[in-house]
Amino acid sequence: AQRVTQPEKLLSVFKGAPVELKCNYSYSGSPELFWYVQYSRQRLQLLLRHISRESIKGFTADLNKGETSFHLKKPFAQEEDSAMYYCALMTGGFKTIFGAGTRLFVKA
Amino acid sequence: DTAVSQTPKYLVTQMGNDKSIKCEQNLGHDTMYWYKQDSKKFLKIMFSYNNKELIINETVPNRFSPKSPDKAHLNLHINSLELGDSAVYFCASSQDAGFRGEQYFGPGTRLTVT
Asked: Which residues of B touch A4 (CB under 8 A)?
């Protein structure tokens, strides 16, 4: 079965602390994985994709096929990082499966 | 210019009514989607259209009927609205039909059924 699991509904950290948002997937093929972010009162937007291997706003995510994970990390959280984060798996064709989302709250 | 727009932003209606939500994208994308986000923020795909053709139709009640008059538009019509239909509905579009297709989302339409 194709599935994306984000085990944490809410993650609360202090400003300047490291943050890791967990994402595990289940897919028999070669996965295409994304992180989307939804800031307060804004639309959902792409944060990064695994194939680009890029760092956006200080966030990185590495695909670990052995552990079927795509965790999102940032070494020093900022208050403006507070948002809803969705891990997404794009399967063959037109379908994207989203995880349940993790709300990140960065405290001052 | 807004890339993906939806109207209306808010929709409050009574059970049993029929309503439509409109979506337009000016990005020249070939593929458009409808998602439902429930009260727990869970985001689930409902439909996908590619070049006006229905590609994905998840287990959505027949009361929901998407219509794509052209590549730039994907409207969602809902018949006989039920309380459980209350949610935020997001439209999205992407350039690539398959892999590597970043999706661009609309602002969402908050539907409240009373």
From this structure: none
